[in-house]
Hints:
heterotetramer, A: MetI-like fold, globular, disordered C terminus, B: alpha/beta, D-Maltodextrin-Binding Protein, domain 2, disordered N terminus, Bact_Polyamine_Transport (chain A), membrane (chain A)
Amino acid sequence: MRGNPWIFAGRLWLGLAYAFMFLPLVVLVLFSFQKNRFPGFPLQGWTLQWYDKLFSDGTLLNALGNTMIVSPAAATIATAIAFFAAYAFNRFAFRGKTAFLALVTLPILIPPLILGVGFLGLLARIHLSGTLFAVFLTHVVLITAPALAIIQLRLSQMPVSLEEAAWDLGATEWQTVKKVVLPFALPGIFGAWLLAFTFSFDEFIIAWFVSGFQPTLPVAIYSVLVAAIDPSLNAIGTIVFGISCLVLIGLELVLLPLLLGKSENQS
Amino acid sequence: MTNKPQLPKATSSKSSSISRRMLLGSAAAGAAATTFGNFTILSRQAQAAEPLRVLCWPGYEEKDVIAEFEDLHKTKVEFKIYIGGEQMLQFFAQTAPGTFDAIISDAEYVQKLKANKTIEAYKTDGFAELANYHPKFRDFAPTKGETAGTVYGIPTRFSFYGISYNTDEMSAEQAGDWNSLLDKKYAGKIGMFDWYLPNLGNASLAVDPGNQTPYAITDDQLKKVKEFLTKLRPQIGMFGSSNQPIAQAMLAGDIFASPTGDLDIDLKLAGYDNFSSTIPKQGGIRWQEVACVCSASKNKDLAMEWVKYMTSPKVQSKLVYTKAFKARGPNMKIVDYWDADQKKLLSYVPDPANPGKMLVETLIDRSMPRGLPANQPEQAWIDIFNEFKTA
Amino acid sequence: MSSIDEAPPSRRMRTPNDSPLKVWFLAPLGLWLILLFLLPLLFLLWIGFWRVENFQAIPDFSLSNYTDIFASFFSKSRYGLAMIQSLWVAITTAFFATILSYMVALSIAFAVPARWQRLALLLAIAPFWSSYVLRLYAWQTILSRNGVINSIMRLVGLSDYRIDIIYTQIATRIGLIHYLAPILIVILYVSILAIDRVLIEAARELGCTRWQAFTRVVLPLSRFGLMTAGSFAVIVSLGDALSGNLLGGGAGTSIIGKLPTYASMIMSDYSSSTNLPRTSALATILIAVMVLALAVGFVLADRARRRIG
Amino acid sequence: MTAATADLELLSITKNFNSFVAVDSVNLKVGRGEFVAIMGPSGCGKTTLLRILAGLETASSGQLYISGKDVSDVPVNLRSTRLVWQNYALFPHLDVGGNIAFGLTLKPYDKAVVAGKVKAMAELVGLSDFMGRKISQLSGGQKQRVALARALVTEPEILLLDEPLSALDAHLRIRMQGELRRIQRQLGMAFIYVTHNQVEAFSMADRVVVMNKGRIEQIDAPEEMYARPKTEFVARFVGTNNLFTGRIQEIGHDRVIVHCAHGQVVVMTDDPPPVGASVFVVVQADKLTPAPIGLAGENRLDATLRGREYAGSHNIYLLDLVDGTEVKMTMPQILPVEINRPVTAWFSPQNAALIRGAA
């Protein structure tokens, strides 16, 4: 294999691709530590002032607090819904299954701006718009599809006989779900939760429309972003990316083995 | 629905003294602890002390601006930020009546709010600070109430859609004339704010200098506006959906000028001195925000107090200098709260060309308030803008 | 060994387990989707038939929004031109994004030692977890006239050369590709991973060159993944307005001309006028085009899958 | 066997999957403590039948009795049968002890009772030293024991085994065969054992059931099945049999003469079909020998040697008869004949069996 030009070309391409993927992030992080008020060259020296500014003003931190309420809650409910649905999709055959699955995927395909207006209109009619609860409700819709996909992937790796064995040994259906299916799906559930959490954590257009007096973090970022030119945004971007990196470590440990089918489950 | 406003408040007030790490930790822990609290108490009625709720453009919610009011009235003011009049109308239309107590609206949107009966007129007597307002902001042209002495909204903040330009690429003299934008030199080097209203207003003035009512024009005049825009099209390098991308483009040298107003303020503040702004001699459009009181508010007295608060020169001096926006205040006494640099930056300094007047007064005189198309349907103007964009 | 017909897909079996769970477990998802997705969506579609009077949307059943839009589709408002621009940008973006991501996926699968592949994939998808808007701002900084790339070129003495792509649809595509790549890489990598390595070895054994092994085995077998990734990319690109606004400068230049994309038109129309019904009708047209694109993608993907057998 | 002593009784059990008939009116009685092996090729319905017994499938029609009670509609988790899977189906998130105890923990048993039962069962199957092990750390044979223990500890009335040894290597398989038999005897429990491996079935079972296309072809003790297959299918499926098609030509005192394509064959039988009936003559390969020199009489097979396979303890010779019929002959010795040379084989009339043909 050594010296094979294709391998060399592949690695070269991969290097270029990484450079492309990380270039904006490098710029983001770089200018969060630069004195320049506008990201641009030449560089004007290092500073922590934007971080200081970020943390001296409670607004973004409050927003982070709101996000830390909405996103875990939405991720938890979405994962729970997704688990039950994934179980049913995996086990039962029924008419309209494909249509149902397509329906689940649709929310991620509809442009969020359009969806945001629709959500606002409907939630208003049930007097729910403008609350964190509204953000929670709509985020669950958006993040259930990825969660479902991950859990389905995990459940598809479960031998059918595992459940049958539990029934055969006298377990009721519910006992089987609790004692066999759930433990088996746990890595998938964990991965799905992380993915759902990060989606909700990042989402802003829908949240912009339906959130009220308690903006989530991306909404707060956006309201500063559109109006002003403030490198604190780079600072918060860096922090958000840092948090995401932690999540990614979680992914590395849980989600990827699952996606790549290298799980340790029995044959 | 903040049932526990104490938590974020406590966090933010202490924030300067405690470490970042601690802060993050406590915010996260607090958030976790209040998760259920926040979700179970959903209805507004369940809360004891009603805070004041305001729907506004960014800036009004900043602590410097509102803290004094909150302390004075021992209350909490909650803000829902919108960007663009349409969002404001949607947010208003799509929430239960009584959700908002007060609104900061663009002056011309007062018509739309009136049509929806969402705001009500109030008396101007008792607003002592109005005496210090620039005369142009005392006539309340777009916001006048039906009976004498009443208004639907009092101006709080304004600024201009003049030309911001790079002084290395454009002279002050050129920036003083709309027609310079048609110079071949600037082909592809003009940035434009992606909204038909200010741009068609400016074009209306460009073809009909000094028109006091640039939005009430005949179909023939509108045709000329369209022709002017057609000529302008090859000059446009980009459309910006907000100030930020336009300022960034100016700084990066992607564009040399933009009829977006006073981007130079932020650029100068950032240490880039090769930017300036002016209003061309033909005239330019001015935007202004006004404070309105909602008809369904259960907290009207406090809302009135807030409107009064917003007319104070001290508050306006901070409002026009927020992180979100740099703008100007209608209360001319705001200069008392500024140092020389700030005065210069916001052009509250004597105008050499107009003895006895401040530069900002000259600009106010030369500018016309943004309005809605008076003689044609909105869509006709939007179509012209869309046609211009897609030309 | 029991054959297929002897051990039928046991999901079809009638056991005590058949029943109630199916309904109970699908109910939360179904209810949630109906109440909080279909209802708002239908509501939005319905608003498209309302009319506006004195700045207020009045419930009605009028086709006037649609007739208005289509009457001026290529003349006054020129939504048609914007739609053509959108389709052109979306299809080319999807094409390049898919090809480039496919090359990355291939490189990870074949040029990286097995135990480093996970890390390689992780690195490739990491940027997905940072804010899209902030990334676009960073790209603006990078691509600008005095931006990162041009500054660096000046530094190394290449000041005669300058990239001037900001506010063109090329910049729009860069922003979109950066957004799409992580997702596409995962889809394509998984589909490459599903190819049995033995097939490739067999092809090599039979005298194929590496290139032939790729074109005759790997490529045909990843066709389904490519179609899925491609149609996903088309739809996301059609619906996105942010990259076109921030990097494309609102009405970026492309071969077709200096035209905004349709999504960008909707966004600016929405914020320009007090006419939600019209916005809703415009959005409905976009959704219809997307559904059409999805259907085409589905047919192509299905054909690809059938060819794989 | 009478119904009273039967542990299990199947009355015309039928299972359709849409238009496909997987199990076709099967009747079967299994006695207390009996070891029954169900055998058949892939797709014969044996696993479906087993799943019907377990309750994992519901029969389309027919009745199923366990200890005299109709359990046709009893759901799987309430049946007193336990199934042992081919792939073991052990719970990967539980250790060995947890797997064995699983069935018991579903019921409100006292913990000490559960622990005691699990311990005793682990001893019975020889797993006492592995109780804390993870499933992924076990060998195939150990997994098999866990699966067995997990089923047995719940004290079922009948144990159902679905090709339980097929994933094991040959050596282990034989050891486990013996052990299964020992455990079955010790517990006196009925085992129903599905396999496609004939050696396994014949060496372990009290009775063997051969199934084909959803129907039972023959139920018999292994020796009977071997020596006297009752249908063409069984004859072909069991052992290395040679089959000759023919018609009864003549009926003698204790023998008949069958006219086959390659010539006449004499078969000893007590129960001859009428003259002219279509029959199969079955001769096991190891009952064929090279014809003694000078043998003039019956059951001579003139053939050509086509090939030889060396199978360790014996040699398999492939012969073609004059009419093209292929015949197998096994014997320990080497046949001193070259390939494609003529050879003559012979079998004794006592070593041939008759099966009635189609019509």
